Amino acid sequence: MTARIGVVTFPGSLDDRDTRRAIRLAGAEPVALWHKDKDLKQVDAVVLPGGFSYGDYLRAGAISRFSPVMETVIEQARSGLPVLGICNGFQVLTEAHLLPGGMLGNDHLHFVCRDQKLRVENAETAWTGDYRRGQEINIPLKNMDGRYVADQYTLDRLEAEGLVAFRYLVDGAAADGYGNPNGSLNDIAGITNEAGNVVGLMPHPEHAVEPLIGSGRTDGLPFFTSILKKLVNA
Amino acid sequence: MSRTPLDTVEHAAATPDVELPWAELGLKKDEYERVVEILGRRPTGAELAMYSVMWSEHCSYKSSKVHLRQFGEKAPRSDALLVGIGENAGVVDVGQGYAVTFKVESHNHPSYVEPYQGAATGVGGIVRDIIAMGARPVAVVDPLRFGAADHPDTKRVLPGVVAGIGGYGNCLGLPNIGGEVVFDACYQGNPLVNAGAIGVMRHEDIHLAKASGAGNKVILYGARTGGDGIGGASILASETFDDAKPSKRPAVQVGDPFQEKLLIECTLEAFKEKLVVGIQDLGAAGLSCATSELASNGSGGMRVTLDDVPLRDSTLSPEEILMSESQERMCAVVEPEKVDRFLEICDKWDVIATVIGEVTDGDRLEIFWHGGKIVDVDPRTVAHEGPTYERPYARPSWQDGLQADDANKLPRPATGEELRDQVLKLVSSPNQASKKWITSQYDHFVQGNTVLAQPEDSGMIRIDEETGLGVAIATDGNGRYAKLDPYTGAQLALAEAYRNVATTGARPLAISDCLNFGSPEDPAVMWQFAEAVRGLADGCLQLGTPVTGGNVSLYNQTGEAAIHPTPVVAVLGVIDDVARRTPVAFQEEGQLLYLLGDTREEFGGSAWSQVVHDHLGGLPPKVDLERERLLAEILISASRDGMIDSAHDLSDGGLVQAVVESALLGRKGARLVVPDGLDAFTFLFSESAGRAVVAVPRSEEVRFNDMCGARGLPATRIGVVDGDSVEVQGAFALPLTELSEAHEATIPALLA
Asked: Does the complex come out with an ipTM higher than 0.85?
């Protein structure tokens, strides 16, 4: 058997088709979900893809968070539905308060598109089981508003409870993908909730799933095989 | 604010003596008289608005079309061309039932006035041309030219242009896979912002801009119409229509990429359900262009009620509505029984859509406002029968002197130390330096099909996941070569783009061009233009690559000083399996480096002459298109049969530039030996055309040499991939770390 993983399309979503492809390549069944539709079509997990939903107007993710589909996603995520937010999806998850903190504009004020080295800090979430803790991976990053911020209390809690899922690797040459690309606090690239079912990150694992395409690496595929394994074994 | 009386057709006929502001709208006296002659009366204000924008240089090609005809007359026989010049964009058959549409356009003037919005809406416009053909856009490319890199105004224009391209293209979800960035003082007051796009569709999905079938509805959808960009295609003169209104609106349009993204998805969904008979995007000249072209290309006439156009500003006059260049709008012709479904799809995507008229039996384009008929014209006279000029042209008096100022006579480096210094100077010069600071502001991953992106020789996109079918595109142009000899310069641009596509393993199929020149009213500029078009048409005939369409940008001139003639050529190629693509980066140590082609003492217009001597003179490199074709065949065969692991075209900067780029990208050095018969300087810096450097695995050397020998292509072993420096035996060695620092630091230091 396989698992059905939904991918939400908001107006302005860009990586929805790429994410469905990544799910398919991992062996699961991708299901297209529509922002105006509350029905999640009985999927086993949901991905909120990258893009500029609603043009990022007002604030990245701020309008999408109120779309009909998010009502159901928020409700079910609280009772354990695995949800992954990539880039704009991460922004939506913070706006929806499924994950703490928020994203500001990159500190250098430019859009940045590059290969990015990350360290997996938590390999026990629903989406990271196929990684090893401490594993270094290389995944494309592309965003305008990627600077993760949170108050000191929240940062301390994230660190103390092991909720930082991915961290930018900063010690090395920029040309090799090292460095904090946007000024995120504590070099945070992605986080998880306490239950480990909700994960958000700025880099794009769906762009690192085929050897020939994009970065030419497959470091992002374990996101999708992790969730598949978890759902199938459940 | 009363507008009395409304200038209807009837009113115009009754008041022949009313003076209209034709000169302010950019029409010449004889052009205005021609309009009166066509109509048999004076035009209404609305008709004048339409004729003035549609007969502008930008829309009518009035100075250029007598020359552009050669692209049709000399078109090579090609089975690949499905739709040629004249539609929104050309369409090429790439096999397996797929068709690809692509085009390059200019947005030069707006980008100088307002860099961010000018560049952003340039991307928006070219993408709508691609959608209008029925295709899903899959990639964009941006050939850019700016003034001197260290000029203060470049720091105003370039970051704005780059942010605008990124801001719009990234938000549309289109990978930016190629283009160029060139600096030259000649572009100081006239930066060139060209934008190209590629789209993919199935053969049966090709759509055309024509309105046929009486009773079919004309639907305007997308953004509301505002006062932005009025007269962008001609000039700004709105206040002369009505003094009581807020005057002077910006002639540069403002883009909303989010709206365009919805427009793309909504249009593609309507295509998928076969709801569209004809379609046209609203770009230059807005509704004037869309209605007159749709009607002109179709079999019938068209009736439009302008009151039904959704407005952003309710005080707009009908003339302004017709001239507005508000972005993110399209016009579709839909059969009456399919209108409801079309509107439903628009509603799904939150896109405003309104029926504004219908196709009629007659052959007139009639437009109504407040119940009165304000336009009654034969649409062909607006869209296709504008004036044609045989502008005088003459070889400029300075051309001989320029060509006599031979760059081959410039002082050359004599020692290894001097060579080393000049190599460093070259690879760190703004034109030869890494453009990563710029390209990292563009998304090149989105859509998940990008096989190659800049700084590769061509951008490559997979279009079929099952078979691996892909397309490649490269854009090139060298204004310095073209200044020395426009005919040869245009052919060199073609040859380079053709070669760049072949270097990555793709077979060149067709071209689009963006011809950037100074004022056509200057006979010297007109001669450059005529020569460049002749060169390009002759070259395309010889290479068998038809011109599918393109764009002409004239008046790139500040005062008396025109830009270098800058024909930019985009070549589209196809590759059967993207897994066979050849990258620029060195892959493995120990592989053998081969130089393909002949190297001569050719330094006219070279990067070396510019960087070391600030010199422009002599003749550009010679062109041998038969040799280019042979080189391309060898590169494609070698790629397909796995005989080479990396390849790089040789162009500006010569061999040393290419080797340094391959080494830095692959993080592997090279040891080079100067071949017999060449001196180190010529070997490293010459810009002879028709050359590439390839890395051959040792196991493939015999087979590769046999192939080149049998086909008659000179292949010279020049070294090996090895170590962590670029070394020229007996002359110098440069560590990769030093080269990398020199190559990477320049652009951020100037612009960040």
From this structure: yes
